Amino acid sequence: MLGDELLDVVRGETARADVAYAEPPAKLTGGFFTENYAFRIADAPPPWDGPLVARLFPSEAPADLPRREATLQRLLADQGYPAPGIVWFDDAARLLGRRCFVMRRLPGRAMVGGIKPRELFTSVPTLLRRLVDTTASAQAWLHRLDATPFVEELADLPIGVERWFERLAEFDDLAPAHTWLLARRPREASPRVLCHGDLHPGNILTEGGRLTGVLDYTVATVAEPALDVGFTTMTLDITPIDAPAPVRRVAARFGHGIARRYVAAYVAQTGADLTNQRYYEALRCASELTNVVSYRLARASGAQHDAPRPTWDAVAPEMVEFFRVRSGVTLTLPPPTGRDGARGR
Q1: In degrees, to the nearest 5, what angle opens at C-alpha 114 toward C-alphas 258 and 166?
Q2: Which of 17, 105, 118, 273 has an alpha carbon within 20 to 30 A of 193's alpha carbon?
Q3: CA Rg, the chain, in Å?
Q4: Domains parsed from the chain with CATH numbers
Q5: What is the pTM of this model?
Q6: What backbone phi and psi angles, to 5 degrees, belong to 158?
Q7: Between helices 277-301 and 225-238, what is the axis angle to 10°?
Q8: Inter-CA distances, 34 with 70, 131, 135, 202, 278, Å
Q9: Which residues contact 133 (CB under 8 A, 6 or more apart)?
Q10: How far apart are CA 230 and CA 280, in angstroms?
Q11: Is there a cis peptide before residue 117, judged by omega within 30 degrees of 0?
């Protein structure tokens, strides 16, 4: 049981045998790759006091991902950025047999609560008022921070664009995308900055109109600013929601307008060179398709796959078209299986 395993960790870290929960672990919604559990320890000494979250990674995640995320979140919190501070991380430790860490639970609510149609469209007033400026400001702030400590601490790990090429090379279905992206890889503009890579409204927390948190550093990369902008605009342009195709098309038109305004706001704040933005949109599209292909192949073979259905699986046709428009390359994916096929229509 997760609750028992977490208590064992806290007892070992605090040297207190009488540790108990004020609030036992409860699964949080909105985790589309990891599983996240909120909990609170009663009368806990620092750093175990206050609201906490245990973050569990699927077995399909790269082995170095928890270390990369934990390191970046710690360094960002040290620089005053609103990333969840790390309370406990042990690269050899497991919870429920999975890599993990414990972080602080930040105040506020996500600007979009989820990818279901009702959750998305009930958030429209908030999106219209705040999403553009908040997203651009959070990204500009991140890009002003010093990337050197992160690069130095993870000198033995791939933290740049190369890891996306390595992942693409694993899938024959995506070989045309891999070839195109390698052949047209641009010379990176300066400077190289910390890129969140997935800065959509579901990963941005606000409270009373104030930015209180930026979550989920799974895609974090050190690269030129255009990568972060391109990764963000790809998400906004497609707007991955699990809904019938007509609803997805309406959401995508709305997202495209938001994307244009967001880019203008970001450039106004930073003056960054975004020459390579469309290339990075294509790279993000292809990289997310690796998760779709991996999931579909696992489902078709009956292999164990403890990661949930990727957010992007429902919009795979739109992703194939998005990549074709930017590259001229048409990709053929494994078909969805079972209920996923019906849900994707």
Answers
A1: 80
A2: 105
A3: 20
A4: 2-104 (3.30.200.20), 109-343 (3.90.1200.10)
A5: 0.91
A6: -75, 115
A7: 60
A8: 14, 24, 22, 14, 28
A9: 265
A10: 5
A11: no
